[in-house]
Specification:
Pfam families: Peptidase_U32 (PF01136), Peptidase_U32_C (PF16325). By secondary structure, the chain is α/β, with parallel strands linked by helices. The chain is built from eleven helices and 23 strands.
Length: about 450
């Protein structure tokens, strides 16, 4: 077995923060640190409240007061215009004392090293670090932590840890996966001139696509695309002998070729990453930080994900077996189906059935967020997110631990009894278990 990292007996749980509310929620549900980005210099422009220096200062101060870490993302690969403004824009931010800068571009790193030699730098996943030689290189120029590529297996991660025992390693364990190599995608820029690598990704890989077989045209005549027709030359994998075309939903008639080789098919939508079942192995390997993706997601997302991975980490460190209920709890988050990515290259049918069965048994849907509790009435005011009603089996998700009850009472905003609330945009009142009263934040999920 690989020795645990000498740097950290228990891995850090690192959560995304697109706003102060998300940051506070992440910490309340067990995260040790958060990462947030400057919109101009990170790969998340939208749904990012940290463009204002005041919000960034407040976030860093609150994190440090709570004994938590706040990492600032500057992982863009900039063109010259942004290079010229980088140091001036970063100077007041560095003065706020973020715990590290997450960076990818070597030129920007050199500029930071020259201006602020004591600032810690973490290497972004955008740098595509896939081997121990690259880890040693980055460490040799003063990078403190390496966020490894998503394309690595568990065995490869263990090999890197053995070869680089003194370097901090970080890995993504949950969230969206780009249909590209470590996020270096061109689809969004191709479709609507919004460059993912400059922070303005429109998630084009997740749009509605239809797949067409290019081997037959409308008349039924078979046709082949030549090797040199712009689809990539050289020998082709057997599965790639048939040429496929995709059509995006809002661009009828614009057919784009899809190429397939022995590694898979490129361009179509990926499932989301869920590696909670591998946390014990990652703890044993000695990974220093386990990272949740999703700076543009909701506070409920960061609450549920942080809570599940906190429990998985704590169980692994204590030597307790994996709690399969965590699989179902993560199904309550919006997802496009789950995969454990490249961590395990070949799953047995028994393993796949095991994961599927436990995932489906705990599926739920966010239906509300508790706004406050009226002790006189004994009821909580709830902002409705999705439909639910009397008789539903619901779960109160809060930092102190979750409570499951059968809903027996529901009142509308005026206090009149109702059987069911049809959907979002409303406020209702309902009773809380005694263990939930006063808990904040508190979300409500309905079992499906």
């Amino acid at each position: 077995m690989t020795a645990s990292s000498p740097l950290r007996p228990s891995p850090e749980l690192l959560a995304p923060a697109g706003s102060l509310q998300m940051m506070r929620t992440a910490f309340a549900f067990g995260a040790d640190a958060v990462y947030a980005g400057q919109p101009r210099y990170s790969l998340r422009v939208r749904n990012n409240s940290f463009g204002k220096l005041e919000a960034l200062a407040q976030g860093i101060d609150e994190a440090h007061a709570a004994g938590k870490a706040f990492y600032l993302v500057n992982n863009i690969y900039p063109h010259n215009t942004k290079v010229r403004s980088f140091l001036a824009d970063l100077e007041p931010v560095v003065a706020l004392g973020p715990d590290a800068l997450i960076m990818a571009d070597p030129g920007l790193m050199m500029m930071v090293r020259e201006r602020w030699p004591d600032v810690d730098i973490h290497l972004s996943v955008q740098a595509n670090t896939t081997n121990y030689a690259a880890v040693r290189f980055w460490a040799s120029i003063g990078v403190k932590r390496i966020i490894l590529s998503r394309e690595l297996s568990l065995d490869e991660v263990a090999e890197i840890r053995d070869a680089c025992p003194e370097v901090e390693l970080e890995l993504f364990v949950h969230g969206a996966l780009c249909v590209a190599y470590s996020g270096r995608c061109l689809l969004s820029g191709y479709f609507n001139h919004r460059d993912p690598n400059q922070g303005s990704c429109t998630n084009s890989c997740r749009w509605d696509y239809k797949v067409h077989n290019a081997a037959e045209d409308d008349s039924g005549d078979v046709r082949r695309v030549p090797q040199d027709a712009g689809l990539g030359g050289g020998p082709r994998h057997a599965a790639g002998e048939r040429v496929w075309l995709i059509e995006e939903g809002t661009r009828p008639g614009e057919l784009m070729p899809v190429e397939e080789d022995e590694h898979g098919t490129y361009i179509l939508n990926s499932k989301d990453l869920r590696a909670v079942e591998h946390v014990a192995r990652l703890v044993a390997i000695g990974v220093d930080s386990l990272k949740i993706e999703g700076r543009t997601k909701s506070p409920y997302y960061v609450a549920r994900a942080s809570q599940a991975y906190r429990r998985a980490i704590d169980d692994a460190v204590a030597g307790r077996p994996f709690d399969v209920r965590l699989l179902g709890e993560l199904e309550g988050l919006a997802n496009r189906g789950y995969t454990d990515g490249f961590y395990e290259r070949h799953h047995t049918p028994d393993h796949q059935n095991y994961l599927r069965g436990h995932s489906e048994s705990g599926r739920s849907l966010l239906v509300g967020e508790v706004l406050g509790f009226d002790a006189t009435r004994g009821l909580a005011e709830v902002e409705v997110k999705n439909a639910f009603g009397v008789g539903d089996r619901i779960e109160f998700v809060h930092p102190g631990g979750n409570d499951i009850v059968r809903l027996e009472r529901l009142e509308d905003a005026a206090g009149a009894p109702v059987g069911r609330v049809p959907g979002a945009g409303r406020r209702v009142w309902l009773p809380l278990p005694a263990t939930v009263q006063g808990a904040s934040p508190c979300f409500i999920a309905r079992f499906l």
